Amino acid sequence: MKESKQQQINIELPEDVAEGVYANLAIINHSVSEFIIDFVKIMPGVPKAKVKSRIILTPQHAKRLLKALADNVQRFESVHGKIKDYEQSGPPPVNFGPAGEA
Question: What predicted TM-score, i.e. pTM, was given to this entire model?
Answer without folding.
Answer: 0.72
